[in-house]
Amino acid sequence: MVYSEPHSYLVKLGLFHWNSWRAKNPNVTPMLEGANLNLLDLSGFNLRGAKVKGANLFGTDLIDADLTGADLSKADFTGADLKKANFTGADLSEARLIRTQALGSNFERAIFTGTCLEDWNIDSSTNLEGAICDYIYLKSKYSPEEKRYLLQERRPYSGNFEPGEFTRLFQKTLATVDLIFRKGIDWQAFVVAFQQLEAERGNSELSIQAIETKKEGTCVIRVIVAPDDDKVQIEQYFKRQYRLALQAIEESYREELEGQVENLDELIGNYRQQSADLKEMIKVMAQFQNKSV
User: Fold this and answer.
1) Looking at residue 156, what DSSP letter applies?
2) What pLDDT does residue 265 have?
């Protein structure tokens, strides 16, 4: 089944025309399967019970929209803004919610099985109570050979979530910030930036929950924060302090060794490699553990 041309046309007429049509035709199910709705402003739209399977909603605004009971399976919500939208009982199975904004969204009893949730953004007001999910994916990568996106990093790695486990998993991650370093990490600069962040936050303490190393030198440090903290602000402040610390360390190193050694740039490169090794990471972890005792 594909989308209905009149329904796709009505959507593009805007909020007033669409919602007026829905009010006058309450028994008509909107047919928008496979429709191209990317970059549209559908904020406040009444899409209750709509058939939107496989639709392209890339970058679409759905703020405060009502998608209760809608079939959104295999739809692409990459970069979409779903703030305060209502997805109660909606089917989001195998959908792509990549870099999707879902602050304050209501996903009560929504179906998430097979959904890709790469870098989606939720907060403490996002409702996942009663969500139904056997498994999800946390990454996707486009394959030019197969001309499609391949889903990666399945959770759980095998088998299925227990009832309620999916909701608990994301409620837990709400209180963390992932600091991502794609080209390795300078642990000395990390310590300086982390301490600056702690000083900025006053009495609100931070702690490191986990350190993950991924492919191509990417390092992810998961930091525990308060549930109501502004995670975006924390990440931006830390990265600004980290860049400043990196610059200060390199300038100090250059001043100390200028004129004393040849191949200064090569020596600095070796320093960076040494600062990113496992021993340095262990020292940092020990430092934070001792601090918390």
Assistant:
1) S
2) 58
Domains of the chain: 1-174 (2.160.20.80), 176-292 (no CATH)
22-41: b (≥16 Cβ within 10 Å) or e: beeeeeeebbbbbbebeebe
Residue 178 pLDDT greater than 80, yes or no: yes
CA distance 168 to 129: 9
Residue type for 134, please?
D
Residue partners of 225: CB distance under 8 A and separation at least 6 = 175, 176, 177, 204, 206, 231, 234
Give the Cα-Cα-Cα angle 14, 18, 26 (nearest 5 degrees). Answer: 170
| 66 vs 253 pLDDT, higher one | 66
**Percent of the chain having pLDDT more than 70?**
82
- Strand duo 219-224 + 176-181: pairing: antiparallel
Residue 86 binned pLDDT confidence (cut-offs 50, 70, 90): very high
Q: Are 3 and 34 in contact (CB under 8 A)?
A: yes
- What pTM does this model have? 0.65
